[in-house]
Amino acid sequence: MSIDERLANTQFPLPVIRQVNQAKHPTAIGLGLGELRDFPVDTKVLDAIQEALHSDGTNYTANAGLPKLRQAVAKRQYATDGFNYSPEHVVVTIGVQNAMYAAIKTLAKLGAKRVLIPAINFGIYRKIPLDFGMEAVTYPLTPDFGIDLARLSEMVLPDDLIVINSPSNPTGRVLTVQEQKELALVLKSCLTGGYVLSDEIYSQLVYEGEPATSFSAFFERTIVLDGISKSAATAGLRVGWIVTRNLKLAQAFTSNNTTVISCPPTLNQYGAIPVVNGDTQPTIDSYNQTLLKNRNHAVGILKKNQIPVVVPRGSFYLFPELSYRIHSPVKQFCIELAKRPDGVVVIPGEAFDAPGYIRISLATDQIEEGMNRLVRMLKEQK
Ligand SMILES: Cc1ncc(COP(=O)(O)O)c(C=O)c1O
């Protein structure tokens, strides 16, 4: 078969999230956002970009990123896990999406065969391994979206890659220190040649209880993936990074990513420095206050209407199961809901391998009206 024939026979279906957003009526309320779009960006970020415009902001940086940013990431990572990182342990990427791609590509080339991913997951965890001929296998979660440790431990092979994501998209679940210690204890005996890929992109967005701790504080063979997309309300700047304790592995990540991106956008790397340094912490604190308020409103409305939900304390999502209340498939329900002038946009759980659920974003100033509309439409289903 020729290239053109293969192309003609290949379909590129719209992702579920896009399908729902395309159906959106102009007056429907958006509870589907995966970013803090309407939250003000800290002026320190904008000032750093502006300043860089007058220095070397329009030049390439080193392939692994600006030394000053890598130094800031190394320092921040040291503060959470106590390992003496240098800038050489850090590889700057174009967001965590690119970080995950570079890490899995590299580890596949080094012989990794299998990636274990959470049963409810952010979609790229399944898709990226497929690009490299790897198998993605799901591990079960507990009813409150924690990791089912007993069942995970039965599955792990010594050279596996294991993706964890805390705080989680889409569940909002944050692993506690105790849970991470227990996970690390299990992995120390069974994951002797592989790595944990810890997606910590929501690490700064914990609005209640104990803050998030990097999994690398508990397990040495952890590759940390983080960035500024979520916590700084700057998803479009596309700055993320990978941190590993293994310098040779960091070199391998850089080498494998250089053919794809050369280097991350320079101006945006400058913009990330005040975020990583902690200079924008008051702004992040204010985001968390808003998210907590929105969570309380949204959970209150669900509870008042006898709709059970696992109460999250991080990222910015609620993830209730709704299939038992809806006649049509949940995806169809979401599309119908988005189309109505008095509707809302919520994301069908199918996008996260959990078809009975919906994801509600708390990143909005219309949470009450949005939730009331959702509940009204659910009542119509009776
Ligand atoms: C769990 C998770 N990981 C990674 C990403 C991608 O992050 P970035 O925008 O930094 O590429 C997202 C974005 O939605 C996410 O929710």
Low-confidence stretches: none
Main sheet characteristics: 7 strands, mixed
Question: CATH homologous superfamily of the largest domain, by name?
Answer: Type I PLP-dependent aspartate aminotransferase-like (Major domain)
Helix and strand pattern: HHEHHEHEHEHEHEEEHHHEHEEEH
Distance between the first and last residues' Cα: 52 Å
CATH class of the largest domain: Alpha Beta
Care to count the β-strands? Answer: 12
Provide the number of structural domains. Answer: 2
Listed once per kind, the bound small molecules are:
pyridoxal-5'-phosphate
Rounded Rg: 21 Å
Strands ordered across the widest β-sheet:
2-8-7-6-5-3-4
User: What characteristic shape results from the CA principal axes?
Assistant: globular
Can you count the helices?
13
Mean pLDDT: 97
Task: Summarize the structure in short.
The chain is an alpha/beta fold and 382 residues long. Helices cover 42% and strands 12% of the residues.
Provide the fold topology.
Blueprint (H helix, E strand, L loop, with lengths): L2 H6 L7 H8 L5 E2 L12 H11 L13 H15 L8 E4 L1 H15 L4 E5 L5 H8 L3 E5 L9 H7 L5 E5 L11 H14 L4 E5 L22 E6 L12 E4 L3 H15 L4 H12 L3 H24 L12 E2 L11 H10 L4 E2 L1 E2 L9 E4 L5 H14 L2
Parallel strand pairs: 1-10, 3-4, 3-5, 5-6, 6-7
Antiparallel strand pairs: 2-8, 7-8, 9-12, 11-12
Helix pairs in contact: 2-12, 3-10, 4-10, 5-6, 5-9, 11-13
Bound molecules: pyridoxal-5'-phosphate.
Pyridoxal-5'-phosphate binds next to α5.
